[in-house]
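Appendix C: a fully annotated inverse folding record. The material below is reproduced so that readers can follow the format used throughout the book. The structure is listed first as tokens, followed by the designed sequence.
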């Protein structure tokens, strides 16, 4: 761990993620269901200081268990950010299989599910700089823990939920790279915690 104070790093990551949520996810309406839980303070932010996947796995176990036990009115969803781990998207993508295995081991499939975001996220078949990849890009590698019941209610309230993906693609294409840059939601690390960029030349598969 670098000399950069842990608490300052945690505070920065949480602020970056809140800015991303407010300006990109909610501001661009990439997820029509996000505003409600954000306004109600039902989003739980957890910054992992893990530097290895096994340590992150252990934290994922804790956070899934905690979310399942929590009152949904107080904690509807959890964002588990890993600013010091799985910086390469291929490594992160591989870890998602492990995350699903954790759900199965805990017996929480059907109750909770895990979505994912990454600074280098890339849909299969797209170029690294394809603007549509930004629908799933966040400042840090992030595991989004969601309640199945909340998803079901949201889908019922939004009858054309299956159209969200296509609408998001159109929104990003109209926004363009300059528009995304203007949002200033890239986050990033302090100089002492600079994250290596994923190899843009590698072929990556979408989660």
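Designed amino acids, in order:
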């Amino acid at each position: 761990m670098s000399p950069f104070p842990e608490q300052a790093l945690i505070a920065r990551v949480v602020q970056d993620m809140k800015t991303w949520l407010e300006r990109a996810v909610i501001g661009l309406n990439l997820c029509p269901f996000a505003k409600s839980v954000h306004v109600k303070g039902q989003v739980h932010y957890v910054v992992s200081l893990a530097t290895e996947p096994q340590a992150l796995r252990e934290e994922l176990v804790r956070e899934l268990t905690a979310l399942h036990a929590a009152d949904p009115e107080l904690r509807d969803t959890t964002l588990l950010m890993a600013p010091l781990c799985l910086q390469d998207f291929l490594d992160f993508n591989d870890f998602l299989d492990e995350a699903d295995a954790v759900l199965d081991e805990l017996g929480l499939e059907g109750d909770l599910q895990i979505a994912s975001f990454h600074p280098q996220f890339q849909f299969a078949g797209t170029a690294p700089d394809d603007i549509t990849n930004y629908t799933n890009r966040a400042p840090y590698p992030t595991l989004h823990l969601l309640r199945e019941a909340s998803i079901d209610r949201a889908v019922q309230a939004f009858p054309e939920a299956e159209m969200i993906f296509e609408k998001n693609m159109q929104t990003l294409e109209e926004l363009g790279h300059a528009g995304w840059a203007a949002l200033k939601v890239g986050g990033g690390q302090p100089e002492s915690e600079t994250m290596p960029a994923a190899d843009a030349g590698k072929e990556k598969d979408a989660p």
